[in-house]
UniProtKB/TrEMBL annotation:
Protein known as: Peroxiredoxin
Species name: Hydrogenophilus thermoluteolus
InterPro entries listed in its UniProt record: KH_dom-like_a/b (IPR015946), OsmC/Ohr_fam (IPR003718), OsmC/Ohrsf (IPR036102)
Lineage of the organism: Bacteria, Pseudomonadati, Pseudomonadota, Hydrogenophilia, Hydrogenophilales
Chain segments annotated as transmembrane: none
Amino acid sequence: MECTVRWVTAKTFLAETGSGHTVVMDGAPEAGGRNLAPRPMELLLAGAGGCTAFDVVAILEKGRQPVTGCTVTLSAERAEKDPKVFTRIRFHYLVKGRNLDPNKVKRAVELSAEKYCSASIMLGKTAQIEHTWEIIDET
């Protein structure tokens, strides 16, 4: 996996990924940014959310669960002093489907958290991680 990050102007940066996609990042105005794009740490958090959502959907589909939606809401706390690493992250999963088996949803979240989601497992090295979930039944 590769990525190149190039300084554009002020505190704006352009990341070009190995898969050929680009992402703009910017800093907060108080840090010299212009608030034109997400902060790098926001993208790190979003990446963890995308990683685990992907896992949960894939695990449920593989288990033949009729999943129709998955939203992961993340909230994070950071250290007050540099390096301002994440110290606590809460993942809340809202899984939609028809007659989903609660045990299979729970297991999908656990498998992502403990085995498959590299991003959240890596963040767990510095942060206390909490996973909660709920099911929205669409029957």
